[in-house]
Each structure stands twice: as structure tokens, then as C-alpha cells.
Amino acid sequence: MNKPVDPSIEESKARMQAVLELQKRLVISKGPPDARLRKDRLTRCIDLLITHQNDFVEAMNADFGNRSRDMTRLTDIAGAIGPLKEARESLEKWMKPQKRKVTPAALAMFGAKAEVRYQPKGVVGVISPWNFPVQLSFDAIAGAFAAGNRVMLKPSEFTPATSALMARTIDLYFDEDEIAVIVGGAEVGAAFSSLPFDHLIFTGATSVAKHVMRAAAENLVPVTLELGGKSPVVIGRSADLAKTAARVMTGKTMNAGQICLAPDYVIAPSESVRGFVDETKRAVAKMYPTIKDNADYTSMINQRHYDRVRGLIDDAKAKGAEIVEINPAGEDFTQQEHRKIPPTLILGATDEMNVMQEEIFGPVLPVRTYAGLDDAIAEINARPRPLALYYFGEDATESEALLNNTHSGGVTINDVIFHVTMQDLPFGGVGPSGMGAYHGHRGFLEFSHEKAVYRQTSSEILAMMRPPYGATFKKQVEGRIKP
Description:
By secondary structure, this protein is an alpha/beta fold.
């Protein structure tokens, strides 16, 4: 069978422009879809994922070189179906207009009413990343469809097999006026981000997000940016080190650390570091007795990212850090079929090291020390605001101090990453780690226009507010400016 020829850049640009014009035209002519159609679209997404789950698992494995099939079923298949089901079950409640208070209250007594109606924004552009290519596509689609929008999806060129499969399967279940997939590289992505969508959501690197936001600004397109940053782990003196190490390393080794929410560095009391290191070794050995040919341990996505992460380790070593490679079976990684990097701790990491200056996105974990909690808080606040913060310990005073005195997109206490799995919590960053939020009801709101509607009373009670201004008018104004 001949390999399909990818469309040229010009063909892709022409198609995406034509699809956008078609979808926008139908937004106006068809109006907002009712709950039945929204549920039908969400159900078709669920059916697509269930029917083609094995194809997606194999496609992601091929794109990564090796990606844990069991993890893929959890994170990308079940992880995508969950938000779709939540939206399907809740959207009728979300769609209901919300009554709001009428002020002054006297107007309500004469029949005035205020409410918020939730109107689809129109056409939502979705730019999804390579690290969880299915889950992070369909999670955004769930919110967009629930809100009644049409969708254009641009998946990552770094996972070409998965992106092509999404394009083929979505085409089987949907007309392109409902959802269309645009495949292509960076130039296609740049053109996509410059389209005049009614809303654009981008998930990926902060450096790329600046270009996306700049392009969207040309058309004043509202954006949701889900980025990342250096998410810290603060280990309190009351923490159970064995439990802490197991949970931190579960998050750090999932997808080989290629997660925007992965713990990026640890801050621990100096007296706890060696205990944490020992427990980390035990936890990794239990999860991954071998690594090189272990199907549960995921490869780096490509050679460029592999070389970048190896470079972070080499740079830290050259600048005096102690490197602790956790390699339970003592395997030789200089010769390997895929791009696997064993879990690696960097002890004594300093600000001069590259590993402390950029998001790692790999199975490498710097460990730093603090004397008091105020020092840990000061270090976190000295860096750009991260997507997540993690605290381990049983000291409620400490956890509250961290919650109140630091900024992060979200927080998980006594574990990592789990807050993103809570569909009733908003998921998003703050500042350099993103803007806007979605998931569950928050996603419905993100992709809806909250239209303010006021119905005036038929009474002429407001006639007093018209010129010429008399004593009654002046009395009303005086009443409003009292303390």
C-alpha cells in the first residue's frame, strides 16, 4: 500500500480557510444546537474512542518508539472518555439560563428581570500537543461541543501516526462542518493560529504560546493557554518519605516525565534528602525492575528531546551536581533501540544549571534544600508562576502557608498531578503557565459567551429619572451615594 501523500502547505491553508468559512456560515444559518445534538456529538466522540482504542494505543506507541500501552489506555483513552461523559451528563443543567439579582430591588417588585444566557461562541480552534495527543484533544472538544460550538483541530506534528489516525477516524464520525482536523507542521500550525476563530485553545510550550497569542491578537481572538513551567514539590518535615518518594516518582516517570504537570524540582529539608533519595531508589526499583526493554517505561518523543534532556544532565554534572541515575538492573543505555533515559536525580542543583532554568519535560528531578518553610516559599515566588505546586506533609499550618503565599495554576497535597483528574475543578495556569481554564463546567463556561439579558418593567416607575430633573430624582441620587 502506498503511503498517503500529505497535502502541501498551500493546500492546507486553503482547506482550513474554506472549513472556517463553512463553519462560521453555519453558525449563523443553523443557530445554536439543542441539547440533543450536543449529546449526539459527544456520544459520537465516545464511540470513536471505544471502537478505535487499540488503533490509538498502537499509533501512540509507534510515535514514541515505546509508550506504555496500559498507561495510554488510562491517560489517553479513559482520560478522554471521562470528560466527554461528564459533559454529556451535565450539559442540560449547564445550558439553563441563570437568574441574577435586579438592582435596585424596587425594579424587581415591578417585574424587571435579569439573567445570564449561555451562547456558543461559534467556531473553536484547538491546538493540541504531542505528550497526551488524544486526551488533550478530546478534553477541549468535550467543552467546546457541550457549549454548542463547531471545532477545528490542529494536532501535533510530533505524533504523526496519532494525528493521522485522529483525522481519519473523526472524518468517519463527523462532517467537517462539525469538526475538522488539520494536519501539518509548524508552518501549518502558524497559519492555523492566525485564523479568525471565535475562540482558540492552545496547549504546549510557553515559548510557542507567545507566537500563538501574538497571531490571535491580530484578529482579537480570545485565547485559552495551557502551558507548564517548573512545578515544585515541597517536602515538609512531617512527610512520610517512603510514601512521598513513591508518589513523586510515579508522577515523574509517567510518560517519562513528559507531562506539563510533572514535578519539576524538589525542595526538602537538608536532613531529609538522603532518606528521600533512598526511598526514591526503592520506589523506582519496585515500579521498573528493568527499564531498557520494559514496555511500561516510555521513551522520549524524539531524538531532539532526548539530546536536550541528556544535555541538562551533562550540564548539571559539569557544574558540580551529584548525579544519581536510578538504574535497578544496571543496564547499559549507550546502545538501545529507543530513546529511554533512566530516572535521574540531580542533587545540589543550583540556579546556574540549565536544569533549573527551563521546564525539564523528562525523567530528571533536581533536589534542593531549605532551612525553613519561608525559604521554600521565597524560592517558589522568585520563579515564574508554575502550572502546579505539590506539598507533602501532615502540617496544616505549612500547607496553608504555601496555599496562601504562593501562586500556581493548581495544587495537589500529598500527591502529584491528581488535581487535573478532578472534573469539577478548573484546570489552568496563571501568568507564564497559562491563562483561562477548562474541564467540566468550567470548560463549558470557557467556550460559551455569557450573555447578559435584562428585561425592563412595564411600569413607568423610571420616568422620574428623565429630565427635567426634579426633587424626586435628586432624592434618589442622594440615597445611592450615602455610605
